[in-house]
Write a structure and sequence with these properties.
With 252 residues, the chain is of the alpha/beta class. The protein contains seven helices and twelve strands. β10 and β11 (210-218) form a beta hairpin. α2 (68-78) packs parallel to α3 (91-100) and α4 (114-130) runs parallel beside α5. The longest helix has 17 residues, at 114-130.
């Protein structure tokens, strides 16, 4: 039985993950971390990772970027792998988790959905086929409580597409400050916030007289929870390194 430490356990995603794990037989949550330590779970909840006493096999983090450094230190000190699902990391924090992966296994993805990761692969293929004859725009929609914009997933999609282009594109987030025609070597990224939208992403390839759109619509947070738990089970026993959804899918 794989023992999970859940960071952000009393948040919206934390509660969904706890429910998903309760229905599985290969893993269990033995402890949680949250600033809100109200006892509404079947496992103990601590305000800091330093307070955790239970032996654990893997950490799942769906909380806030500010807890990254303590979690990485905990993972390195105890040789415990970490599944990092939190969005909004700075470039410096991404470098920090990349360096930490030299000592312990780190699974990092800005979106844990299988469908989103397939969407990225399809978008990369489309970019390779269509080349620079099509303009590329990404539109992401989320609920009105989401803090970061653009979404980590939108940037993840843009980075995937950029990796197959001949020239590194410029990411353009706000066109109202530009008074010039659109260049060929840019990717527009647009954010919409409203209501209770879980997550919608469109990649638009606009060419002469034709438009190709690749879309993904997440209808509940459960798709992300299932992906994070699968990643945790996969990561236990892996060698130190930085792992992504592509690695897990390749080994499936």
């Amino acid at each position: 039985m794989i023992k999970i430490l859940l960071s952000g356990c009393n948040g919206k995603m934390g509660r969904v993950i706890a429910e998903i794990v309760s229905q599985r037989e290969d893993c269990q949550i033995v402890a949680g971390i949250d600033l809100n330590t109200d006892k509404t779970t079947s496992f103990p909840v601590y305000s800091s990772v330093d307070e955790v006493q239970e032996p654990v096999d893997v950490v799942i983090d769906f909380s806030h970027p500010s807890v990254l450094s303590p979690l990485l230190s905990y993972g390195a000190a105890h040789q415990i792998p970490l599944v990092l699902c939190t969005t909004g990391y700075s470039k410096e924090q991404v470098q920090e988790l990349t360096q930490a992966s030299q000592k312990t296994a780190v699974f990092y993805s800005r979106n844990m959905s299988l469908g989103i990761n397939l969407m990225i692969e399809l978008s990369k293929k489309a970019a390779m086929v269509l080349g620079d004859s099509f303009d590329i725009e990404i539109v992401e929609k989320h609920h009105n409580q989401k803090i970061d914009a653009p979404s980590g997933t939108a940037l993840m999609i843009a980075d995937g597409i950029s990796s197959v282009l001949k020239e590194n594109p410029q990411y353009v987030y706000d066109r109202h400050s530009y008074r010039r025609p659109r260049s060929k070597h840019e990717i527009g990224i647009h954010s919409i916030r409203g209501g209770t939208i879980v997550g919608e992403h469109d990649v638009i390839f606009a060419g002469r007289d034709e438009v190709l759109t690749i879309s993904h619509n997440a209808q509940s947070k459960e798709v992300f929870a299932v992906g994070s738990v699968n990643a945790a089970v996969y990561l236990v026993g892996q060698q130190p390194g930085l792992y992504t959804m592509s690695d897990m899918l390749a080994d499936a």
